[in-house]
Amino acid sequence: MSSLAAIRPDSWDLPLFLHVLGAFVMVGAAVLAAAFLVPAWRNASVDALRVGYRSLLYGALPGFVVMRVAAQWLYDEEGIGDIPDEPAWTAIGFGTSDLGALLLVIATVITAMGVRRSNAGGARIAAALIGALLVLYVVAIWAMTTKPV
Fold this sequence. Notes:
By secondary structure, the protein is mostly helical. The chain has one domain (13-146): Up-down Bundle (Four Helix Bundle (Hemerythrin (Met), subunit A)). The protein has 4 helices and no strands. α1 (14-43) runs antiparallel to α4 and α3 runs antiparallel to α4.
């Protein structure tokens, strides 16, 4: 009997799987966007801006939605909100998620305006916002893995 036979679908933790999958997609798409927004800013390349925009629109935003919905599902299913002294890592996670959503939407709108106008002028602001977003994601990943008190 192989070790894969021991994995049954009824033993999967679907909300946790979706939360981690959404986070992977969101962070990966944000890194891809940063990899194209920085050259768009430096070279005024509309093509690089377009790829950065699409990675935010088709990767980071849907990944965020999946991550955030699954996080709330986990929070409710595990009863974390019912704990008298709520763990700090949940506050860090929700805080970075809320601020991250704002930065992500603003960066997506700025890049969309640049693509629409065929002008890479907003790439500097979008690249800075995505850079700040990636720093927030590193803090959230640290909080989710180390679970500080």
